[in-house]
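Minutes, project huddle
Topic: does the predicted pose make sense with flavin-adenine dinucleotide bound?
PN asked that the exact inputs be recorded in the minutes so nobody has to dig through chat later. Recorded below.
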Amino acid sequence: MHKSALPNRKETIKNIYDAIVIGAGGMGSASAYHLAKSGADVLVLEQFQRGHTFGSSHGATRIIRFFYDKPFYTELMKTAYTEWRDLESASGKPLLFITGSVCLGERGNPYGQSVRRSLDAAGVPSQWWSATQLTERFPQFRVSNNIDILWQEDTGFLHAAECVLTHLELAEQHGATLKEETVVTNIDWHGEFPTVCTDNDQFRSKKVVVTAGAWTGKLLAELNLPLTVTKQQVCYYQPTDADRFTPDRFPVFAEMTADGEFLYGIPAFGSGVKIARHGRGDRVSPDTCQRTPDTDYIAHIDAYVQERMPELRRATHAEVCLYTETPDEDFIIDRHPYCPDILIAAGFSGHGFKFCSLVGRIMSELATNGKTDFDIHPFYIDRKPNTSSGIPRLQT
Ligand SMILES: Cc1cc2nc3c(=O)[nH]c(=O)nc-3n(C[C@H](O)[C@H](O)[C@H](O)COP(=O)(O)OP(=O)(O)OC[C@H]3O[C@@H](n4cnc5c(N)ncnc54)[C@H](O)[C@@H]3O)c2cc1C
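Predicted holo structure (tokens), as shared on screen:
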């Protein structure tokens, strides 16, 4: 690849990159890092500025956990954890914080049973706790006896916004170029190499990695991917006694309520204790979505908090974020059906962040070797919908 500048000529004429990554969010930043680290000449194109808050990867925290009711996620998480720890070593920054987790549900709820089976199959330890055990260890919770409580010690959270910036910084240190405020308008795959078009430029590349989050459907309109973008919201709480909710004294928690709602929480880190409902957001366009939180949503979470953790009182503020959902809530990681030089990672359905470190590696392997040893069959575009127990799942 030749990087010499020729004035007044479009970059397409002089550059053939090894890989162009479209989108510098969670998945794109990780892909850029792994590609650049492997020696590839990488260009990253991002429509906003790094660390922006219009997509899916902003905010202080995201849950990282082994507990899933689909065993293939639990298996993949083993490498994802290792990759996050490697990123901490490479950057010298703390990014992953282990708190342990409790997963709450009605007595005998099938989700809890299914999660336990998945953990057992993967050899990941977990324990059923009684309500007394829970409140002895974490007196912040108010629970009845008629509840299942599954403890898993490896759960924690990632410092999400910092993870994105760190992947980008290290990618740049390995030679990647990031162009911000650069909207990709089209990918033309009819030539020898795919050409990525923006309003002002065209860039050719041996491989193109599409990690465009909520904008993937629009960018790859020809594929009519089954992606739905929804508005999601998270609430933050500042308890009077903040020390009781720090990561060393309060766990990540998740709860499937009797009426099928999924709620989750993350200890105080930065903006306070984060509590939210998974899914059920309104369908929106990522370009026009109102980023103001809804008061009825906040009231709904406040009511839950009053019952379960009353010390947290009322939300002090809330944040809006986007999910890009597939019908079975499983990811899309695959080649473009019409052009194998275009690789797609999308549809992370509200639970993808913990996998960024691994997805970045997989995208790099697919781009440089044409294959990966990780099992990505569940994520192929033409898969049959992945079902497990047939029950709704707690994601995030
Ligand atoms: C409220 C909420 C809570 C969540 N909690 C968790 C959790 O606890 N644990 C977990 O694992 N996951 C969680 N997730 C999911 C996780 O955050 C997402 O799956 C993940 O961030 C998706 O990353 P992404 O790279 O696909 O999208 P994004 O981070 O949005 O990145 C896409 C990027 O592409 C850019 N882009 C798009 N189109 C173009 C274009 N045409 N030209 C140039 N650039 C373009 C966008 O600007 C954006 O920067 C949560 C998500 C939300 C919304």
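Observations noted during the meeting:
- Residues 1-13, 388-394 have pLDDT under 50 and may be disordered.
- The CA atoms of residues 70 and 388 lie 6 Å apart.
No decisions taken; revisit at the next huddle.
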